Amino acid sequence: MTTTRTIAQTSPLGVNETASYRSSYVYVKDGIEEMALPPVLQGRLRLPLIGAPLFIISHPALVIAQARAGIVGAFPALNARPAEQLDDWLTEIAEALDKPTADGRRPAPFAVNQIVHRSNKRLETDLAVCVRHKVPIVITSLGAVEEVNQAVHSYGGIVLHDVINDRFAHKAIEKGADGLIAVAAGAGGHAGTLSPFALLAEIRRWFDGPLFLSGAIATGAGVLAAEAAGADGAYIGSAFIATEEARADERYKAAIVSGRAQDIVYSNLFTGIHGNYLRASIEAAGLDPDQLPESDPSKMDFGADKSTKAWRDIWGAGQGIGSVDAVTPVSALIDRLAGEYADARRRLSLP
């Protein structure tokens, strides 16, 4: 099916030090190779789905609601402000997810997103807090650093690294990441420009480990399509902005509900990295969405207050928002996604 890539690393998944991702995650069913999720995810997901960490918006209430409804909930460590609040958040989340759901299920695990860019001055201290709390999944962005991966592996956690192309995917795995999040065209916030089909196909030529797809997914059919294209699951962010638990301005939620793909603008002006934003929020800031200047990527600063202000004033969103029709509780959104996922399987005569 694919060639095996052997990566020298210490794995938290009980395999040898020089472990093949193929032998770790691929199994054979009825003579056909199929992907296996990491052990931390097996038997705990209602849908093969991660709720993407949303800068400013994701906080304990949202993460807890996502995980208790059966998907991975995630938040950026930088959302906890001041930094000392991160310890409290992790305690609150762990305690809430230690209790079974009303129907007796074990909640899904949660994840913390760490910005690994050199401008994030909190990385070392935030990572130490995550290690102390044994956060099950760490999602890394904007830099692959071996020491970060080793720290997470030290207690048995796993690292998923988000990438926008195959070159960055290779770097992440070579540095010891356990899995990848392919951020394709149309994703909300920081995003790439590649077709999801092209990006997944290139990565799957050499990588058989955990792989999730991000990019304009807001339906259960989209989750199934991600699997059909080679991913192990999907990564949805924008749809969760329009939930009751999201810590977002009500005008922002309303804009998600009323917005369509044509309302999304791709620019690097606001953070130095290209991303997708709502046209109306750019216009409200007194800017012409069709005449935005280019920003100098070398001036990126994810530790500065101005970065937070930019995300508060300029609203990130992906091209999939046209499928969001109302502000609902997280549980209702996941019910919708699960129903659409089941309907899509039936249309294809899948069991």
From TrEMBL:
<keyword id="KW-0288">FMN</keyword>
<dbReference type="Pfam" id="PF03060">
    <property type="entry name" value="NMO"/>
</dbReference>
<protein>
    <submittedName>
        <fullName>Nitronate monooxygenase</fullName>
        <ecNumber>1.13.12.16</ecNumber>
    </submittedName>
</protein>
<dbReference type="GO" id="GO:0018580">
    <property type="term" value="F:nitronate monooxygenase activity"/>
</dbReference>
<keyword id="KW-0503">Monooxygenase</keyword>
<keyword id="KW-0285">Flavoprotein</keyword>
<dbReference type="InterPro" id="IPR004136">
    <property type="entry name" value="NMO"/>
</dbReference>
<dbReference type="InterPro" id="IPR013785">
    <property type="entry name" value="Aldolase_TIM"/>
</dbReference>
<comment type="similarity">
    <text>Belongs to the nitronate monooxygenase family. NMO class I subfamily.</text>
</comment>
<keyword id="KW-0560">Oxidoreductase</keyword>
